[in-house]
Amino acid sequence: MLYTKGELNFIIEEVEVYKYNIFAERHFSFGTWTSRQHAFVRIVSKDETGFGENIISTNVPEISLEEWGGCLKAFIGLSIKEAIELTRTKYESWGGRCCEMAEMALIDLGGKLLKQSALDMLNLIGDKPVFGVYVILSDDVEYVKEHAKWAYDNKRATYIKVKLFGDLELDSKIIKAVRENTDENTFLIGDVNTGYGKAVQKDEIDDIAKKLNILFDCGLDACEDPAAMSHELWIELQGKVGKLNLIPDEPMRPARVVINENIEGMGRIYNIHPGCMESIIDAVNLSNKIKELGAKLMIGDDSLIGPACTVWQQLAIGLEADWVEAIEKAGDSDNFNKAIIDISTTTDEEGRLYLNKNTYGFGLSLDISKLKEDAVDVITYR
After folding, report:
1. Is 319:127 a contact under the CB 8 Å cutoff?
2. Which pLDDT score is estimated for 344?
3. CA-to-CA separations, 104 to 109, 225, 231, 371, in angstroms, rounded
4. 140 near 32, Cβ under 8 Å?
5. What's the rounded Cα separation, in Å, for the pair 192 and 170?
6. Measured on CA atoms in the order 298, 304, 309, 315, is the torsion positive or negative?
7. Which pLDDT value is given to residue 192?
8. How many CB atoms within 10 Å of residue 20?
9. What is the C-alpha to C-alpha distance for residues 55 and 357, in angstroms, rounded to an integer?
10. What whole-number distance in Å separates Cα of residue 117 and Cα of residue 110?
11. Does residue 34 surpass a pLDDT of 90?
C-alpha cells in the first residue's frame, strides 16, 4: 500500500533498460562469481524520470537484456498506478528481480510527480543516520587482514561483515584476522551462505552449534545463514549458541510470501535482502513485522552498484534499521557515480549514511548520456 497525496494517474511515456557487465571475482561457500550482469531502468512521464536497478544474472555476460527486461514495454500507455498493479501480478512470468526493479522506479517516478518523498509514500518516518557496513569478500586471510586494518584506520570499522565458508579452520582464521586489526567496538558479522549444512536435520544441530560457539569465541558477533534449516531448527540453534546472534537471510525471501509466515524466534537480527524481495512495498511490510517482533533489522546487499544503493539506504533510514550493506562500491560503481547529477544520501567520515531533506521520490537524478556510454546493451520503448 502506498500513501500518496494524490492519484498516480500520470501516463508512462517511455521505458529504457540498460545492461552492465561487472567483471569482479567474488568467493562464497557455494562457489565463485566471476561476473555480474546488472540492469538499470528509467521510466518516464511528464518530463520526470524514475530509476531502478537489480542484478540480472551472475556468470552469464551474454544474457539477453530484451528477454529479461522486454516485458516492461507493457507499461507504455499505462498510468503509474496501473503499472504498479500490473507488476504485482507478474512475479512468476516476469521474474521477481525484474518486478522489484520496476516497482522501485515506479515509486520514484510517482513521488517526483506528486512532489512527495518515497519514504512518505511508504509511510516511513525514520530520519536518523544509519551505519553502513564495511564488507570483506575474500577467503584470503592476508587480504582480510589488510582490509580490516584499512577499515579501522579510516573509521569504517563500526560494522564489518566477512564471508565465511563452512570450513571451521578457515573461518576461525578470517574472524581472528579482523579482530587482530580492530577493537572491541567493531561488531563483526559473518555470512556463511548455509555453508555449515544443507537441509539440516535435528540430529545435526548440536554439531553446528559447537562450531558456531567456536567462531563466537574467536570474536564473531553475528552469523548470517549458518545452515539451511526449518523454522523450528533456527529457534533451537539460537538457543544453543548463547550470545551469538543468528541472522536469517534466505528464509526471508521473497517478502510477499514470508509476510504470511511465522518467523518469530529464528534469530535476534533479520536480514531484508535487496534484490530478492520482489517488491519494495512488501519488503517494507515485512520489515515492520520484524520490528513488531522486537528483533533487530538489517538491510543487506546483493552486490548492487547503482540506483538501488541509494534506494535501500533511504529505506534503511526510514525503517530505522540497525545497519545497511547496500553501498556504492569502489570500482564497480565508478561508471554510475560519474553519471550522478543529484543523489539523496551522503556518507560521513565514519561511514554513517544520511538522508538529504526535501527530496521527491528517491531523489536520484542521472545523466542519461553517461549511463548509455558504459552500457553493453540498451532497449527503449515509447
Report:
1. no
2. 97
3. 9, 26, 30, 18
4. no
5. 12
6. negative
7. 97
8. 22
9. 29
10. 9
11. no
| DSSP secondary structure code for residue 10 in this structure | P
Q: Indicate the residue type of 346.
A: T
| SS3 per-residue string spanning 235-260 | HHHHHHCCCCEEECCHHHCCHHHHCC
Write out the three cell numbers for 16.
529504457
pTM, two decimal places: 0.96
Q: Is the pLDDT of residue 111 over 90?
A: yes
> Is the N-terminal amide bond of 254 cis, ω within 30° of 0?
yes
Q: Name the nearest CA neighbour of 324 among 303, 343, 306, 297.
A: 297
pLDDT > 90? residue 58: yes
8 A C-beta contact, residue 372 and residue 378: yes
Helix 96-114 to helix 307-319 angle (10° resolution) is 70
Residue type, 241: V
Query: 266 pLDDT exceeds 90?
Result: yes
**Separation between Cα atoms, residue 347 and residue 148, nearest integer Å:** 19
pLDDT at site 46 = 96
pLDDT, position 367: 97
pLDDT of residue 248: 98
Predicted confidence at residue 21, as pLDDT, reads 96
- H helix intervals, the chain: 65-69, 80-87, 91-94, 96-114, 118-121, 141-153, 168-179, 205-218, 231-240, 255-258, 280-292, 307-319, 334-339, 368-374
Report the relative pairing of strands 345-347 and 352-355 from DSSP bridges: antiparallel
